[in-house]
Model the fold of this input.
Amino acid sequence: MLRVRLRPDLTIIFICAALYVGSAAQVRTPRGQTALSLAVTTMAAPAVALANAVGSAWEDFRTGQRSLRATLEELGRLRGESGELRRTNQLLSAEVGELRQGSRLLAAYPSLLDHAVLARVVARDLLGTHTLRLDRGTADGVHADSAVLAETGLLGRVDRVLEHSSRVQLLSHPAAAAAATIPGINSEGLLVGGDQPHITGLPPYTKVAPDSVVLSTGSEGIYPPGMLFGSAQEARNEGLFTVVPVRLAARPTEVTVVLVLAPVNKGAP
Done:
């Protein structure tokens, strides 16, 4: 049988400690607490305070997390709204620009309005096919071979028409051609397109003043007479004809609204 033997000195220490604890449990403070409970409370106070601080910090952390999530969600929503407002503003700015250009166009050619259709440019292919796409077609009174006029001058003619859209062949198209004249020169020439539109067919050694206006004559049956094509550049003699490079007045890259004129052979009765 195992017997536990205590050292006399340790036994005395344990007995004294027990007597102290027992005495402390009997002694009461003015507030009614025992000395033992006061000692325990005092010794436990730092641990309790630390636990409370940790709990409070954890609660603050959880609250901060929830607040951060809400803030991030609100920020994402505001960013979405800001992007939508930016797109709307761009669309409104574009529409205002179109309205202003259309107003100037209508004011510049009041005599043509009875037989013209105001159309918006919805697409352009200036390098490939040298064409513009308009948002008006046969349902709006647009016909093939209708002349197309911008604020600064003629752009070209309608070469394809659908019910609600049409395509414009620009004067820069390699196959484009129109009868043209330069004031002060009796001969009529042919304005042809390409990388450098030019007038050909003038008699050799014809004198042409630089920056002279180039106007339509209408003899090809498409463009009304007296409309602006552009301005003449330095002329040169090529074989039997004088060739005059032409700087076109209308810039397709800047045009958003055009007037589609009634074809010359389909004018008003």
Q: What stands out?
A: The helical segments are 8-26, 35-108. The chain is about 35% helix and 25% strand.
